[in-house]
Amino acid sequence: MLRTVAGGAVRTLAGSSWPSGLPSVLPVPSRSASPSQSPAEAHFHSASSSEAGCPRVLITGGLGQLGLGLASLLRKRYGKDNVILSDIKKPPSHVFCSGPFVYANILDPQNLREVVVNHRITWMLHYSALLSAVGEANMPLARAVNITGLHNILDLAEEYNLRLFIPSTIGAFGSTSPRNRTPDLCVQRPRTIYGVSKVHAELMGEYYNYRSGLDFRCLRYPGVISADSQPGGGTTDYAIQIFHDAVKTGKFECNLRASTRLPMMYVDDCLRATLEFMEAPAESLSMRTYNITAMSFTPEELAQEIAKHVPEFHISYHVDPARQAIADSWPMSLDDSMARKDWGWKHDFDLPELVTTMLNLLGCDTRVAQAN
Ligand SMILES: NC(=O)c1ccc[n+]([C@@H]2O[C@H](COP(=O)([O-])OP(=O)(O)OC[C@H]3O[C@@H](n4cnc5c(N)ncnc54)[C@H](O)[C@@H]3O)[C@@H](O)[C@H]2O)c1
Ligand SMILES: C[C@@H](O)[C@H](N)C(=O)O
């Protein structure tokens, strides 16, 4: 099993049969390989890996909270030039210089087609979206990007036989879903355009998989916490901002109630899960959409953990009714046992490690704080 540590470095790797000669990694599945096929036949039928055996990856929406970290991890794995970052935003110069970047608007199918063809793309990781809070603030745009854009992506992935990853979210559940240890399969009646669009993405991807064999893969992420990128307008954003404010000012005003429990994950776990899932043999996947999680906490519990390192830290509450209503309809914890069973998902970061890591990355000397 491939494992990484904070920062994305490979820690331990098992297995060694990647045909491109990459350092020992999980065997790359050919989606049409079967035990009766010769490796040559399997390779011939695999359109999800490039001629050289190494995927050529396109990341859409790559300048958001998660895209840059994902690109960095995948570039370490597959080579800088095999991972193309794209967005409609202008990249800062350090991003532009760090590897291939192209403009790709998911609402423009012609533009997308050119990118896929010109860069000989074999895997697409589709990260463009409007998140929960900004989606409610601009429903028509969220509907266009998250639903019309998705249709463009699916059609292209089917036409060019791409392996397609689309992240879903805890926001794909609603108040009528079980809220404790929410299972993979249950009632999904979200009441945000974000949630509705993600249920649509899950179902459409599974339908394309069923209809034409599209190698669609989807993980329902919890709230993802990272230090080096800004959150994009979600309901779980408080769990990032709290660290910045704790380090800068020692206090934080939270827009959710103290007792609001939500599933969360540190970004390194999230990105490693994505890579491991993309590399998992198709035969090991009993489903195409999996829950993954690491921890669940409330703002109050997070503040208490931060206060162990920043003793003067003070949290206050000024609840935003729109975000609170969204959070109250989401799971408090997820059941991700199927991901753990099928393809070996295992998180590294629980709440104490998350807090220590975030504070260290943001420049707070937690050892000194603890000593004090
Ligand atoms: N961050 C989280 O906590 C979290 C949790 C669950 C799921 N996800 C999912 O992961 C994905 C990435 O999340 P994120 O936090 O990086 O989002 P983000 O909002 O930070 O970034 C989204 C990116 O999409 C781009 N985009 C918008 N319209 C576009 C268009 N027409 N064409 C191309 N790109 C466009 C934006 O410019 C932005 O850079 C999303 O699909 C999101 O639903 C994120
Ligand atoms: C949970 C996730 O999908 C995103 N961070 C949001 O809050 O909208």
Explain how this protein is built.
With 372 residues, the chain is of the alpha/beta class. The protein has a domain of 241 residues: NAD(P)-binding Rossmann-like Domain (Rossmann fold), CATH 3.40.50.720. Helix content is 40%, strand content 15%. It contains 14 helices and 14 strands. The strands form 4 sheets. The protein has a 7-stranded parallel β-sheet with strand order 5-4-3-6-7-8-12, with helices on both faces. A 3-stranded mixed β-sheet has the order 9-11-13. A two-stranded antiparallel sheet has the order 1-2. A hairpin with a 5-residue loop joins strand 1 and strand 2. Helix 2 crosses helix 9, helix 6 runs parallel beside helix 7 and helix 8 runs parallel beside helix 10. The longest helix has 21 residues. The protein is globular. The N terminus is likely disordered. Bound molecules: nicotinamide-adenine-dinucleotide and threonine.
Keywords:
single chain; 372 residues; alpha/beta; Rossmann fold; seven-stranded parallel beta sheet; three-stranded mixed beta sheet; 14 helices; 15% strand; disordered N terminus; binds nicotinamide-adenine-dinucleotide; binds threonine; L-threonine 3-dehydrogenase activity; NAD(P)_epim/dehydratase; NAD(P)-bd_dom_sf; Epimerase_deHydtase
Question: What can be said about this structure in brief?
Answer:
GO terms for molecular function: identical protein binding; L-threonine 3-dehydrogenase activity. By secondary structure, the chain is of the alpha/beta class.
